[in-house]
Amino acid sequence: MKISRNLLCVWLFRVHFLSLPPILFDGYVPGINDIIKGYTSHDGKVELPLKEKIARGKKAIVALSEYRKMTTGHKFTPATLPAKARERLTTLQENLPYFGYGYIKNVHDLVPNIPVNYYSFRPMVGVGCLFVLFIWCCCT
To answer: Which DSSP helix (H) or strand (E) runs through 34?
Structure first.
């Protein structure tokens, strides 16, 4: 039984391509305002607002610098670590997931120019499709 190329393409499009979005996007996708103001994810985890993440990141940066100052040039074991250094290490470990946020100066610097990104994506996809079509035509 010979299957035509067009029939195969239609079958692949309907079966595989159209069934991808539920697989890829199964769950809640937060928007920009949700990320800035904080939200509760679909599994019940509360995501902190961006300002809180920045504050925790700055706290982690300060704790790291103070810990380095206290321990530089000394050979401490976990048992002989001074109490203040142990306290700084605990603060650092608690806030380490937010470490990178500490370098952000302004929350609004993280918001991209959405219209430019939205509309520049269309020509990019169009040119990519033309390249694929050009290569497919040249190879067949």
So the answer is: helix 32-37
Phi then psi dihedrals of residue 121, to 5 deg? -70, -35
Angle at 16 between CA 15 and CA 22, to 5 degrees: 100
| Alpha-carbon distance values, 33 to 21, 28, 99 (Å) | 23, 14, 22
Residue type, position 85, single letter? A
The CB-based long-range contact list for 46-50 (8 Å cut-off, 24+ gap) reads 48/98, 50/101, 50/104, 50/107, 50/110
pLDDT per position as a tens digit, 28-53: 678 888 889 999 887 788 989 999 99
Q: Which tokens go with 72?
A: 């530089």
Report helix angle 50-71 to 83-95, nearest 10: 150
User: Residue 46: helix, strand or coil by DSSP?
Assistant: strand
- The residue assigned the tokens 């520049």 is 120
Round to whole Å and give the CA distance between 42 and 35: 14
